[in-house]
Automatic annotation (TrEMBL):
<feature type="transmembrane region" description="Helical">
    <location>
        <begin position="132"/>
        <end position="155"/>
    </location>
</feature>
<feature type="transmembrane region" description="Helical">
    <location>
        <begin position="104"/>
        <end position="125"/>
    </location>
</feature>
<keyword id="KW-0812">Transmembrane</keyword>
<dbReference type="GO" id="GO:0032588">
    <property type="term" value="C:trans-Golgi network membrane"/>
</dbReference>
<feature type="transmembrane region" description="Helical">
    <location>
        <begin position="30"/>
        <end position="51"/>
    </location>
</feature>
<feature type="transmembrane region" description="Helical">
    <location>
        <begin position="80"/>
        <end position="98"/>
    </location>
</feature>
<dbReference type="GO" id="GO:0045055">
    <property type="term" value="P:regulated exocytosis"/>
</dbReference>
<protein>
    <submittedName>
        <fullName>TMM79 protein</fullName>
    </submittedName>
</protein>
<keyword id="KW-1133">Transmembrane helix</keyword>
<keyword id="KW-0472">Membrane</keyword>
<dbReference type="GO" id="GO:0005765">
    <property type="term" value="C:lysosomal membrane"/>
</dbReference>
Amino acid sequence: LLCPCLIYGAYVFLPFDAPLLPTVSARLVYALRCATFATFPIVLGMIISGISRLCSSALEPFGELQQEVEIHRTYVSQSVYLFILYFFNMAVLATYLPQELLKLIPLLTGLFAISRLIFWLSYAIGRSFRAFGFSMTFLPLLAMLLWNLYGMFILEPENVLS
């Protein structure tokens, strides 16, 4: 319930517009550039994971990981998986959206990055709190997937593979 409200509020109240992108290749480059910002929480997680592994009191570097090291490692691996799904869906979404809705691409990117940070924080606090951050990441991803499938098979079935 919160994700659509956040996206709608940002869409209406943030004072920017997407540039004019008439071709599919220009839209893909735009999605690629926006997706670069979504890697920020993953890179930050990798840095913190490395620091926590370095500062860990484990005697064997390849032995069993401590909980604080395991939290960061799990966050990074899950974030990479979700980013791959996010990126492919974002690239396809950029090809189907009309020009006036292309403002959603950077907004969804920002939502992805913020939700991964919220997930990380809630995961570090307690594993039972992580559902909120995960749902803020996964539900918009699911909505993008459904829209992409709708666009491919209902709106333009003749261009599915072209």
